[in-house]
Write a structure and sequence with these properties.
There is one protein chain. By secondary structure, the chain is mostly helical. The chain has a single domain, classed as Rhomboid-like (Rhomboid-like fold). It is 62% helix and 4% strand. Strands 1-2 form a two-stranded antiparallel sheet. A hairpin with an 8-residue loop joins β3 and β4. The longest helix has 26 residues. It starts with a strand and ends in a 5-residue tail after the last helix. The C terminus is likely disordered.
Length: 204
């Protein structure tokens, strides 16, 4: 995509938007949460918060980890499926994660209050990770502080399992994004099972 006449990749644009919104939100964080965060109790009246909540972050470590993950997952996945498809996975995964968080709060009582808010791009990023894990199951990655590389699929699904037990984590959003990403990855495999694009080979 072009911004002010310059080409900017989808991943770089997403990172820039997230960082800019984070910096602006620091001026009045409580107002941004009340206005743009996802609250299960009010999502019907404010459905746009399923999207706007994806661009809010609760602190420097939160946005730093998310943007690093978005950069590596996004760049690699974009080379496989293209930027337009990457954006679809990102937003559909993030929105579905928000829907799952809302449904869990309203019908299962988890979290216990429907007025608990959810923010962050983690659901969308887990969607990218889930798709990449399906398309590149043997890809090896380093996860600190582990001294040896592990398969990407293990890092994505294993990390999600670990996060599920951390307090204050909207694990439902992670699960929702992961489901969307994994289903998309499987669909893409069936769509193009033998293409060189999928396996990193290109015709001249």
């Amino acid at each position: 995509m072009k911004i002010l006449g310059y080409y900017v990749g989808a991943v770089e644009a997403l990172i820039a938007i997230n960082v800019i919104i984070f910096m602006v939100s620091l001026a009045n964080f409580d107002w941004f949460i009340r206005t743009f965060a996802l609250f299960p109790a009010t999502v019907v009246q404010n459905p746009w918060t399923l999207v706007t909540s994806m661009f809010l972050h609760g602190g420097f470590e939160h946005i730093l980890f998310n943007m690093i993950s978005l950069y590596f997952f996004g760049l690699y996945l974009g080379q496989i499926i293209g930027e337009k498809e990457l954006l679809k996975v990102y937003f559909v995964g993030g929105i579905f994660g928000g829907i799952l968080f809302t449904a869990s709060a309203l019908f299962l009582g988890v979290p216990s209050s429907p007025y608990a808010s959810a923010i962050g791009a983690s659901g969308a990023i887990f969607a990218l990770g889930g798709a990449l894990a399906v398309l590149r199951p043997k890809m090896m990655v380093f996860i600190l502080p582990l001294p040896v590389p592990i398969p990407l699929w293990l890092s994505v699904f294993g990390f999600m399992l670990i996060l599920s037990f951390w307090p204050g984590i909207a694990w439902q959003g992670h699960v929702g994004g992961l489901i969307v990403g994994a289903l998309y990855g499987r669909w893409y495999q069936k769509k193009q099972p033998l293409t060189g694009h999928l396996y990193g080979m290109y015709d001249k």
